[in-house]
Design goal:
22% helix; 6-stranded mixed β-sheet; 329 residues; 18 strands; alpha+beta; 2 domains; globular; 5-stranded antiparallel β-sheet
Length: 329
């Protein structure tokens, strides 16, 4: 009997350990953290380094974001671009509601987009209920749960920023422009391609795609972007004729050494449970990698050793005008 109990205890511990290492048992992105990554970026000290949509027009409150739009339909488009791919929204009248949960499935409140009630507000994105957040960026910026708000304002109310920076953006950071980044500001240096020019609605985006691939231990993980940034990379590359036009441009540039195909999984810094999310830039699918188990985990969930399928890296810089200079983050 004693041997049986010891065997049973041992099997229980083994199963528990397996479950802890299997992201399929906990393969859920913390919704609020994912959303915050869609709205802004932070440095290691918790300071906001840049806004992914619109901008902060209220210096007294850095968590107050404004986005210029033409109408409510455009506000909906921007709103949906902030959310995970497979999210299901509830509709009440013209309002859209996202019931957010954490990585364990616990309620984190609701994110609501609704039409504005004043001439200065076409739409408002707000939270109902206070999210319970237990990991970054909340750990370094806990006040996020109290005050993040986003107002979609008429384009006519957006301040004009006529200056040297906008001229530089038009002349050097247009769609398909090849730019040499001399200074590494967190996401690498070298030759980048602009895949999305800056607009008041969204920051500009330029990327460098590595021809080489890495084992997990060798990849420069600190330079990884969030999963939603990689999903935006996919959307921008496959928008209209962008894919063809951009590859035609870089084909004429000896300095740009992108892989011929985008059919590969690119590592992000976003996690599902204990697994990192990788995004395929050809079909926008996700795959998970658990560094503890040394495994890739597909949704199947087919498994294969990491050594048989090395990972790729993409460096992503956001940018916008900032006075007479271009700000990167």
């Amino acid at each position: 009997m004693k041997k049986y109990l010891l065997w049973l205890f041992g099997m229980t511990m083994m199963l528990t350990a397996c479950n802890q290492n299997n992201p399929e048992q906990n393969a859920k992105v913390d919704d609020y953290s994912y959303l915050i990554e869609s709205l802004m970026r932070f440095d290691d000290n918790g300071e906001i380094t840049g806004y992914m949509i619109g901008d902060n027009l209220n210096e007294a409150d850095p968590l107050d974001i404004s986005v210029p739009v033409e109408n409510y339909d455009e506000a909906i488009r921007v709103f949906r671009s902030l959310l995970p791919m497979d999210v299901t929204l509830k509709q009440e009248g013209t309002s859209l509601i996202w019931a957010m949960t954490d990585s364990l499935g616990n309620d984190e409140g609701e994110l609501i987009l609704e039409e504005g009630s004043t001439e200065d507000s076409i739409a408002v994105m707000r939270f109902k209920g206070r999210p319970r957040i237990d990991k970054a960026p909340a750990r370094i910026a806990p006040n996020l749960s109290n005050g993040v708000k986003c107002t979609f304002i008429p384009e006519s109310a957006w301040p004009e920023n006529a200056g040297a920076a906008e001229e530089i953006l038009n002349e050097q950071y247009y769609l398909g422009a090849v730019v040499k980044k001399e200074k590494d500001e967190g996401f690498g240096s070298g030759w980048f391609v602009v895949i999305a020019p800056w607009t008041p609605q969204e920051c500009g985006l330029m990327v460098k795609i590595e021809q080489d691939s890495y084992y997990y231990n060798d990849i420069p993980k600190k330079k990884c972007s969030s999963a939603n940034t990689l999903h935006r990379v996919y959307r921008e590359l496959h928008k209209g004729s962008n894919y063809h036009d951009i590859f035609e441009v870089i084909g004429q540039q000896e300095e740009v050494n992108w892989p011929i195909t985008l059919n590969g999984s690119y590592l992000s810094k976003t996690t599902k449970g204990s697994a990192y999310i990788l995004v395929n830039l050809e079909n926008n699918s996700e795959k998970y990698y658990n560094p503890d188990a040394g495994r890739y985990i597909d949704k199947a969930p087919a498994r294969m050793p990491a050594a048989s399928d090395k990972m790729r890296m993409i460096y992503c810089y956001c940018f916008k005008p900032n006075g007479d200079k271009i700000k990167f983050w």
